[in-house]
């Protein structure tokens, strides 16, 4: 006996959900700021956190940090973590990258020490927690600037509670505009007062002269 296909498909789909060993695959979610700025010669923390649907331990999680230069050259290894830290032993990041994370808190951040302009570029944060190995990479663009030219941008995820230059500019413009309005109103008030005083003095002198001319005591 043959069954119509519209009756078979629901059974096949239901069977796919109850077959032992079959489960929904969830990817790791990685969170990083889009851009970070640092002054030449200072230390900067590259923040990277993650979430995973599987249990997390220092033995299960692996972390890879890689660097992609601005000129689109080959990716370079920056840092590796699996149960312990493995800082680079050669290359531009030797003695410049240290672990700043906490696996149990889902924090896999690193800190770059004494950053030079050659560290400008994109940093890739990759996290794996088998069997949860699906998911994209976090990307941070690092901009190294000279002292005095820093233009820190607001990155809620990196520096919560800070104020950006754009917000400061708006506030300064509002305060400056208010001061200008107050000065204009004060100037108008002084001008009107001076005008009234100037036109009032001749009338007073004229009235005094009239009183002297009409004084009955004068024979």
Overview of the structural elements:
With 219 residues, the chain is α+β, with helices and mostly antiparallel strands. 29% of the residues lie in helices and 24% in strands. It contains two helices and eleven strands. A six-stranded mixed beta sheet has the order 2-11-10-5-6-7, with no helix packed on it. The chain is elongated.
Major sheet description:
6 strands, mixed
Average pLDDT confidence is: 77
The low-confidence runs, each spanning 5 or more residues with pLDDT under 50, are 5-25, 152-165
Assembly state (oligomeric)? single chain
Portion in beta strands: 15-25%
Distance between the termini: 147 Å
What global shape is seen? elongated
- DSSP helix fraction: 25-40%
Helices and strands: which structural class? alpha+beta
Strand order of the largest sheet: 2-11-10-5-6-7
Q: What is the helix tally? A: 2
Tell how many strands the DSSP assignment holds. Answer: 11
Kindly provide the radius of gyration, computed on alpha-carbon positions and rounded to a whole number of angstroms.
Answer: 37 Å
N-to-C SSE series? Answer: HEEEEEEEEEEEH
């Amino acid at each position: 006996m043959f069954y119509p296909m519209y009756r078979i498909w629901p059974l096949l789909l239901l069977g796919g959900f109850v077959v032992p060993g079959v489960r929904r695959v969830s990817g790791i979610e990685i969170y990083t700021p889009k851009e970070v700025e640092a002054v030449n010669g200072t230390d900067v923390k590259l923040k990277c956190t993650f979430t995973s649907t599987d249990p997390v331990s220092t033995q299960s999680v692996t972390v890879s940090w890689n660097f992609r230069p601005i000129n689109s050259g080959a990716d370079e290894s920056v840092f590796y973590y699996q149960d312990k830290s493995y800082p680079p032993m050669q290359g531009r990041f030797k003695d410049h990258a240290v672990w700043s994370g906490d696996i149990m808190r889902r924090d896999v951040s690193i800190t770059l020490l004494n950053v030079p302009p050659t560290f400008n570029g994109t940093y890739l944060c990759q996290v794996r927690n088998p069997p949860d190995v699906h998911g994209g990479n976090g990307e941070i663009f690092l901009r190294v600037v000279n002292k005095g030219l820093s233009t820190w941008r607001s990155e809620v995820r990196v520096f919560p509670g800070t104020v950006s230059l754009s917000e400061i500019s708006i506030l300064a413009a509002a305060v400056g505009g208010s001061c200008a309005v107050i000065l204009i109103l004060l100037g108008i008030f002084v001008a009107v007062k001076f005008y009234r005083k100037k036109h009032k003095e001749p009338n007073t002198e004229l009235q005094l002269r009239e009183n002297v001319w009409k004084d009955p005591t004068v024979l």
